[in-house]
Predict the 3D structure of the following.
Amino acid sequence: MNIIIRAMKDEESLDVRRLGRKTFMGFESLFMPTPKKALVALQGDKIVGAVLYKFFNLGKKKVGYIDFAFVDASMHGFGVGNRLYHETTQLLWGEGCDYISALVKDDNVGSWGLFFKNGYNRLSFYQMIKELGLGGALNHYFGTSLFVAVGMEYYLAKRDESIPMTKDNSLTQMLAYLSISSLLFAFIGIMYGYDFVLSLVGMFAILVGIIVFGFVGTIFSKEDWHFRTMDGGFLIHVMVPIIGGILPFVGNWYPKTYRKGSDFKKSLGITAIFQWFFLILVGGIGAFELGPLPVIGRMYAIATYLLVMFSIPLYPFESFAAGRVFRWNKAIYCMMLTLSMVVIFVL
């Protein structure tokens, strides 16, 4: 297949934007800009993919940033994405960048592998500080969409040098996930007249249950798992409770190595089913008043609220559970959605 990769012409920017919106669809498409700089992939005279990029000057460091990357669905499986990532990376090195960065959705199997193949590694915010300095890390965190990108992770490549990938300590990551989400909900709850301790204990118990049931789900697969908390979307996680909602930080069990294949999708889907089942269980106990303690009532309220998010397979909620189940088995997802609606609206 004859695919040409070249720089976008100014008059092609609206066509690139339209393709990007068509590819992402839904909520994510709203953030698709009209590109100023991009590489495009052409089949004949038709644009079938693109990588949008920009530059940041962080003190003495020049950082290239891959803003959006997409390939038309009809061209998946032909290596177009790999060529785009590779040639964009080489272009940015040629522009004198000291680093190249990108954001990747937590379960984006395709992009995950392509970035690793081109020299990028996933970094925590702490590692961002080590590489870019505190000022540079904050500038890049808030200068890109990472501060509002729920469920996104930060990837970085360094000129002529390999950056070690974050070594996730599951226990540390769990504690971060539990403490930040629980305390945030409890403190904001005070604004709405909730009991601080009851809110803290209720949220903490729900999140522990999600972790434990997710771990049980990992036992049914051959993957090597660890737990980690996403750094992306801090502003959204803070703002949602302020306006009266609940949006825990995204924390989950992730395979240490991603790969394509139906059995891999099944492994991800099963962990999500177990987490979702825990919320159904708590919802059933609360609905039938099988738990007389006040904390059970608070847990029921939180669980039924979270069931909504755990049932939506679209960004920004897909990282909680439904996205994994939907990609694995749509019939099972439909049954999951139906039972969730029963618990939420009937019980």
Q: What stands out?
A: The chain has two domains: 3-158, 170-346. The chain has a mean pLDDT of 87. The radius of gyration is 21 Å. The longest helix spans residues 262-287.
